[in-house]
Each structure stands twice: as structure tokens, then as C-alpha cells.
Specification:
The protein is mainly beta. Helices cover 11% and strands 46% of the residues. It has one domain (25-98). The protein contains one helix and nine strands, in the order E-E-E-E-E-E-E-E-E-H. A hairpin with a 6-residue loop joins strand 1 and strand 2 (14-20). This is Endoplasmic reticulum to nucleus signaling 1.
């Protein structure tokens, strides 16, 4: 049994929890069909996902909490997806380089 609990870091209030009785995730593998690259900042939870072929920014999200892993759901279960940790300054620069600002 695995329990994941999230608390608000400012108020220390319980936000949510989930209990899993069966959990498994396969290790990441070099999947040529997966066309996204995920970049995360080390401290603030900023995530930028880009198209691996074109370099276009697909989405930007700030989770305001460190991101430690990415998973995709497939028929076989969870599959861990690679992500790259970079400095927040570098990560905030990516949308400017791709032309995504102002769209």
C-alpha cells in the first residue's frame, strides 16, 4: 500500500491524499514515438514541454512545487518519461526563443 499526501506549505493544511494498493511503473526507455521533451526547474515547479522535432513550446505550467517525475498512462500501466532539470532562468527563456510569447 502506498499513500501520497499533499500539504499546503504555507498553511500546512492537508490538500489531498491518495492511496494505491498496487503500483508499478516501467523504467524509461528510448521511445522514438514519444515526441515531447519535458524541462523542469529545480526549485519552483515550472515545466516547459516542447515538441522534440520542431522545438515548438507545447505547454507551460508552474506547479509552484518541485516536479520529481513524469508518467504517461498506457494500457500496460504507468510508464516513466524522461525530463531534464535546468535552471529557472534558462527555462523561462525557452518560450522567448521559440516565439511562443504573445501568441
Amino acid at each position: 500500500e502506498y499513500t501520497i499526501t499533499m500539504y499546503d506549505t504555507k498553511t500546512r493544511e492537508l490538500r489531498w491524499n491518495a492511496t494505491y494498493f498496487d503500483y508499478a511503473a516501467s523504467l524509461p526507455e528510448d521511445d522514438g514515438d514519444y515526441k515531447m521533451s519535458h524541462f523542469v526547474s529545480n526549485g519552483d515547479g515550472l515545466v516547459v514541454t516542447v515538441d522534440s522535432e520542431s522545438g515548438d513550446v507545447l505547454w507551460i505550467q508552474n506547479y509552484a512545487s518541485p516536479v520529481v517525475a513524469f508518467y504517461v498512462w498506457q494500457r500496460e500501466g504507468l510508464k516513466k518519461v524522461l525530463h531534464i532539470n535546468v535552471a529557472v532562468e534558462t527555462l523561462r527563456y525557452l518560450p522567448f526563443m521559440s516565439g511562443e510569447v504573445g501568441r
